[in-house]
Amino acid sequence: MSRLRLLQIALVAFGVVFCLVYPLAIIWPSGWTWHDGPPTASHYFMMIVGIYATLGVFLLRAAPDPMAHRSLIDFTIWSSVVHALIMAIQSYSADAHMGHMLGDVPALLLVAAVLGGLTYSGGATSDG
Predict the structure, then answer these.
(1) How many Å apart are CA 76 and CA 63, to the nearest integer?
(2) Would you put residue 37 in left (φ > 0), alpha (ψ -120 to 50) or beta?
(3) d(CA 17, CA 117)
(4) N-term to C-term CA, the chain
(5) CA atoms within 13 A on the CB side of 6
(6) What does the alpha-carbon distance between residue 39 and residue 114 come to, in Å, rounded to a whole number?
């Protein structure tokens, strides 16, 4: 299977997961939310859900032709790294937030590593 095909599969998989941040927060709140109570109890969290759901839809749209959407893939890689690093540091501010070190922090680093590896190592090209 070509790197391009694997990249297309990864974009679909991560796009779907990004669209499912809200259900993930319901299933495992300590790994995906930063507040007490249901996900809708935080305006901030709902804003993040909206941003990630939007990014998820655009990743799905990018999947058929990833090379035409390199800037979106780059944004996803680097924003995931930055978001994960900030959350990792903030996780140490209270024991209640250490669940993020097993939830969204490694998930975002996985997104960055997979998309970065498939996009930049060995050259995922439009011709496979």
Answers:
(1) 13
(2) left
(3) 19
(4) 9
(5) 14
(6) 28
- φ/ψ region of 122 (left if φ > 0, alpha if ψ in -120 to 50, else beta) reads left
Place of tokens 């800037």: 71
How far apart are the C-alpha atoms of 80 and 64, rounded to whole Å? 22
pTM of the model: 0.83
Strands (E), the chain: none
Determine contact, residues 2/128, Cβ cutoff 8 Å. Answer: yes
| CA pseudo-torsion sign 6, 79, 55, 94 | positive
Give the per-residue pLDDT at 92.
Answer: 76
**CA dihedral angle for residue 12, residue 1, residue 126, residue 84, rounded to 10 degrees:** 40
- Percent of the chain, pLDDT > 90? 53
From the CB of residue 68, how many other CB atoms can be counted at a distance below 10 Å?
10
Where do the H-state alpha helices sit in the chain?
Answer: 3-19, 21-27, 29-32, 43-62, 70-91, 104-120
Rounded distance between C-alpha atoms, residue 57 and residue 16, angstroms: 8
